[in-house]
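Is this the right way to post C-alpha cells for a design question? Let me know if I should format differently. Anyway, here goes:
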C-alpha cells in the first residue's frame, strides 16, 4: 500500500478538478489507472435481471476498448461491473468507503483480492484502520465520479446511493449517462429522472464509445432465443407497443422489458411516438 498526497505528481488529475478532493489517498495495485480513461458504473444493490444484463454488457464492452471501470465494491451492480470488466481482460478501480483493514461488504474480500491480482487498483481516502460507517459512503461517491470521464447509471431507486453519485457527477460538470427503463419499474426511477433533466440516454456501449471518439467496433450481442418472437414482429415499417402486445399476447411489462433489451443490443430502434423498427 502507498499513500498519495495532493501535491504528488501521481495524484489523480481529475480529482484535482473537483470541489473537495481528498487530501490523500491510500492505494493498492496499479497506480497508473488513476490517471487513465475511466468510466464509473453505478447502480442498485438489489438489482433486476435487466440491470444485471446491462451492467455485464456495458462493463465488458467498455473494458474491451481499454476504458477502466470505476465502482464502489458494493454488492449488486458495483460487484457485477468490477467482475465483468476483468472478464474482458480490462482493468477496474474500486473505491472504498472504509479503511483497507475493513473491506465492506465482507463477502467482497475475495473480489478485492481478484481486482489486485488482475492488475486493478483499490483506493480509499481513509486510514487503513477506519471501520465501516455507512455515513461515509455518500461522501466516497464523489471520488467514484471524480476519477471518471463520465458516470453510467444503470438503475437506482429514489434517494439512493447511486443518485448521490450522479449528483456529485453533475456538480463536478462530468458526463452522466443513463440507461432507459420501463416507467413502471422502481429501480428505473433515478435513470429516467436524470434523462428528463439532461443526462445522456444510452442504449449501447457504442453510444459512450462514440461520445469519446473511440473508433473500434463493439461486437454485437447474440440475441437470446426468448426475444425472437417479439423481434420477428418488428420490421422496417414502424409498429407500436400496443400492436406488439396484441400479436404476441404477452404482459405489457414483459414486452417493454424485451423491447428495451433488443434496443440495448442494437437490434431495433425506438422512434418518436413509442414506435419500433428494425435496425439496418
Amino acid at each position: 500500500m502507498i499513500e498519495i498526497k495532493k501535491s504528488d505528481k501521481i495524484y489523480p488529475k481529475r480529482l484535482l478538478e473537483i470541489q473537495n478532493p481528498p487530501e490523500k489517498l491510500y492505494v493498492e495495485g496499479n497506480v497508473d489507472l488513476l490517471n487513465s480513461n475511466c468510466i464509473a458504473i453505478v447502480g442498485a444493490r438489489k438489482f433486476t435481471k435487466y440491470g444485471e444484463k446491462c451492467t455485464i454488457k456495458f462493463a465488458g464492452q467498455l473494458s474491451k476498448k481499454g476504458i477502466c471501470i470505476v465502482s464502489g465494491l458494493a454488492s449488486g451492480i458495483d460487484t457485477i461491473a468490477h467482475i465483468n470488466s476483468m472478464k474482458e481482460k480490462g482493468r477496474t478501480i474500486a473505491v472504498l468507503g472504509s479503511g483497507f483493514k475493513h473491506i465492506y461488504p465482507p463477502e467482497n474480500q475475495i473480489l478485492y483480492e481478484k481486482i489486485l491480482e488482475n492488475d486493478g487498483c483499490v483506493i480509499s481516502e481513509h486510514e487503513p484502520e477506519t471501520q465501516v460507517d455507512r455515513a461515509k459512503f455518500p461522501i466516497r461517491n464523489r471520488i467514484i465520479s471524480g476519477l471518471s470521464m463520465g458516470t453510467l447509471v444503470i438503475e437506482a431507486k429514489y434517494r439512493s446511493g447511486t443518485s448521490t453519485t450522479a449528483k456529485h457527477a453533475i456538480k463536478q460538470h462530468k458526463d452522466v449517462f443513463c440507461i432507459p427503463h420501463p416507467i413502471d419499474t422502481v429501480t428505473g426511477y433515478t435513470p429516467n429522472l436524470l434523462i428528463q433533466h439532461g443526462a445522456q440516454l444510452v442504449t449501447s456501449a457504442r453510444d459512450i464509445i462514440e461520445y469519446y471518439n473511440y473508433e473500434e467496433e463493439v461486437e454485437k450481442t447474440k440475441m437470446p432465443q426468448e426475444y425472437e418472437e417479439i423481434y420477428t414482429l418488428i420490421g422496417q415499417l414502424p409498429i407500436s407497443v400496443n400492436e406488439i402486445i396484441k400479436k404476441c399476447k404477452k404482459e405489457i411489462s414483459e414486452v417493454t422489458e424485451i423491447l428495451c433489451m433488443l434496443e440495448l443490443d442494437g437490434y431495433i430502434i425506438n422512434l418518436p411516438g413509442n414506435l419500433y423498427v428494425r435496425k439496418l
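Format looks fine. Someone answered above. Worth noting: Residues 49-64 form the longest helix (16 residues). Residues 225-278 form a domain with the Arc Repressor Mutant, subunit A fold (CATH 1.10.10.10).
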